[in-house]
Amino acid sequence: MASFTPEPHSSTPPAPPPKGSTHDMSSSTSTPTTSPRVTSAAPTPPPSEPVPDPGENWLPDILREKTTQDLADILGSPTLLHALALAPCSSHECTQTSYEALSSALRQNSLLARHLATGGSRLAMQRSTTQAQLLSTHALERQWRQRQADMDHALAPFSPASLYLQLVQGVQEQALVCQAMEESFLEGEGEGVPASEREATEWIRRYREARVLCYLRQERKERWDEGRVGGWR
């Protein structure tokens, strides 16, 4: 028999792939897939630090090439030292920073001083105006007191006390008038001359009017004493 050569495409299925270990499977299932977290930190500006003092050994660049005699001359001149200490080209950065802060404080103080001077002048003006108004008010107060005194003096006869005194005097005077009329009538009859009918009628009329007036005044006084006068209670 001839040898059998298998066909390239067989109907037998291929063998399954080898199984992995249990440790690999558990690790692959238990480990979650996490994406890396991206954090962006905003840059913070560094705090401004004060410029340190360079110390006693610092020398401006403009003086490094000077001779000893030139340096001695500069040290002997306070004006040159002051100019070198404040000049922008020769002074240190800490000096400039301090000078700027001092200049800002001086400008602020100058503004405050001008504002204070303006407020002081305004206050002085208001004080003078207020003083003038106060003097005028005192003068008006004195005038008002004088007018009030004149008014009280003019209205004194119409005051309650004065009116009551006038009423009492009127009652007494009217009672005396009635009494005098009675006495005169009796004295006239004692002379032996009879009065005529006309004279008697006239006397009776006048006596009745006097008695009515006396009664009215007496009634007004009693009402006043009892507090029954309108407007004076």
From TrEMBL:
Record-linked PROSITE patterns: VPS37_C
Cell compartment(s), UniProt: Endosome
UniProt region (Disordered), positions on chain: 1-59
GO CC term, one of those recorded: ESCRT I complex
Main location: other
Keywords from the named record: Endosome, Protein transport, Transport
Stated name of the protein: Modifier of rudimentary, Modr
Family: Belongs to the VPS37 family.
Pfam families (UniProt xref): Mod_r (PF07200)
Signal peptide range: none
Upper taxonomic lineage: Eukaryota, Fungi, Dikarya, Ascomycota, Pezizomycotina
InterPro entries, A to Z: ESCRT_assembly_dom, Helix_hairpin_bin_sf, Mod_r
Biased composition (Pro residues): 43-53
Gene3D superfamilies, alphabetized: Helix hairpin bin
Compositional bias ranges of the Low complexity kind: 1-10, 26-42
The keyword Transport is assigned to this record: yes
